[in-house]
Amino acid sequence: MSELIHLSAVRRRRDMLMRGLLAAATALAVLPLALILYLLLKKGLGAWGASFFTTDPNGNFLGDPGGIKSAILGTLEIVGLATVIAVPLGIAVALYLVEIGRQGRFAGAVRYFVDVMTGVPSVVFGLFVYITLVLTGVGGGFAGWKGSVALGLLMLPIVTRSAEVVLLLVPDSLREAAIALGAPRWRVALRVVLPTALPGLVTGSLLAIARGAGETAPLLFTAAIVQGTSFNLGQRMNSLPAQIFNDVGQAQDRLVARAWGAALTLVLMILVLTLTARLAARRSRLA
Amino acid sequence: MEAGTSVATGSRPTIGRLPAVRRQDVVFENGLRLVAGLILALIAFFFVRLYVEASPAFQRFGLFGFVTTNDWDVSRELFGALPLLVGTLITSAIALLIGVPVAVAAALFASELCPRRFRGPLTIVLELLAAVPSVVYGLWGVFVLIPNLQGFERWFASAFSFIPFVGGGAVRGPNYFIAGLILAIMILPIVSAISREVIATVPQDHKEAALALGATRWEMIRTAVLPYSRAGISGAAMLGLGRAIGETIAVTLVIGNAPTIGKHLFDQGYTLAAVIANEFGEAANDPIHRAALIAAGLVLFVLTLIVNAGARYMVRRAARGVRAPSGGRAAAPGAAAA
């Protein structure tokens, strides 16, 4: 009997130890997020001021380097156009996979290559768009819309993969009911399947947008970096990630301060998108 | 959707479809098929373009020579990508060594130990790490990690100098270790998310059986949870590896961008992705340099392709293995998030 109790004490101690280690590792995993958010707030809020959001970078060698107006507007424009490209195309591909292709061989190939696209590093997408659109000089050299194409390529597989999962959740009984009522298949897909899956589609799209908004590398090769505000997607265009990258590279205190402020802005934008997506997902699960 | 076709081709005219409706459906289906085919064509085009643009570099240095020559010197127009390849492998290996154990431990904690009501918030917090953009990690690395970890790195380098590759040189500011550490943080969310999905598929019966036999919580994890989810966790780690290999901007900012093979863990280096982002501007008007950078991109592309294919295979196999013993009710884990 005493032997058994002794053994269980050892086991209990090992159990406590391992539980403690797992908890410590979890704390370690959360630590970087806490540190980054703390520093972003501390240094970023210091850079925020009245003129921070209303002025463009001015390129002066000394004094006030200007704000991030052009970067914010550029990010909104580029990511906006990328969304217009990626979301309808991505959902269309998912619709094909679920409603038409199903388990066919062609659908399998499409599914496989969408998978492959999710793994392609963003810098390679940037390089590809640079080769095909910038080097060839289609509509001039660097341009905002070319940045959108690069981001769209990156976002498309994310949209497709999440949309496919959601569309598969739409019960077949709904489709069968619509068909029994005499609806053509295109109407079943557009008026029954898509509306039913809408919250999930929104979630996936928002997450894809959040991913695209934070990407730097594809924009460096396509939209380049400029100072002034531009509403013309056919010209070079500033963006938050490119602006931050450029300011960090300059290694001057006043520019680094602007980089922290811009980083806080960017992270807040992405956090809002991500949390909205999560809330939408939670609501759709209840429905 | 078999029902739709059988009705449409049905012999009874009362429920048969109007030819106009049938035509609409044909247009709709072929339209979607076209879009899907476009994706395939795009990827084929993608690969061909990259290869064509990179071919001047392969012609000059040879396909094999390009990746095995240890000499990247822009001024002499010599482009051997070995230092970049080695840098990519070293930083990714560090990222896996640090990131995977922490990520799996966090996944185990979140799904087996954490009180139920904290599970949701903990999961969200772990996933929020993925919301921080690469360039912000870089900013943080340059101005926070590099200056604050210098002391620790010096101590570590001298205390463990007997381990090969750790000691034996001055600790540089930007170095392999810092880059690997940042990559470890960046792959944490995906590795832990997929591990959690895999762990969630362990049948409740197995866990309860272990507990009923008198196992402690840890023994339950070790004997029931881990063996069952091992393949899936390996797949998650490989997906993390794929991410780490392709990560660009954060690494560019903290690795020092020196085109040589670093002599030790705390030496400067370069990676395939970083060289593209960093030298791309100066290469715009130098065809062979540009071709070399595109060739580096192609090597990177192929590398991630191989790693991701391996990861997918492992996660899928884990999903199949999971389905068999639990009576076919478990959904494929990870396959969706992969």
Structure write-up:
The complex is a heterodimer of chains A (287) and B (338). With 287 residues, chain A is an all-alpha fold. Helix content of chain A is 77%, strand content 0%. Chain A has ten helices and no strands. In chain A, helix 2 crosses helix 9 and helix 3 (105-119) packs across helix 5 (144-169). The longest helix of chain B is centred in the N-terminal third of the chain and has 43 residues, at 19-61. Chain B has a single domain, classed as MetI-like fold (Orthogonal Bundle), CATH 1.10.3720. Chain B is 73% helix and 1% strand. Chain B starts with a helix and ends in a 15-residue tail after the last helix. Chain B is flat. Chain B has a two-stranded antiparallel ribbon with strand order 1-2. Chain B is an all-alpha fold. Residues 1-14 and 323-338 of chain B have low confidence and may be disordered. Chain B has helices at residues 2-8, 19-61, 63-68, 82-113, 116-128, 134-159, 176-200, 204-212, 217-246, 249-254, 272-283, 287-323; strands at 72-73, 78-79. Classes of the chains: A mainly alpha (287), B mainly alpha (338). The interface between A and B is large, with 89 and 87 residues.
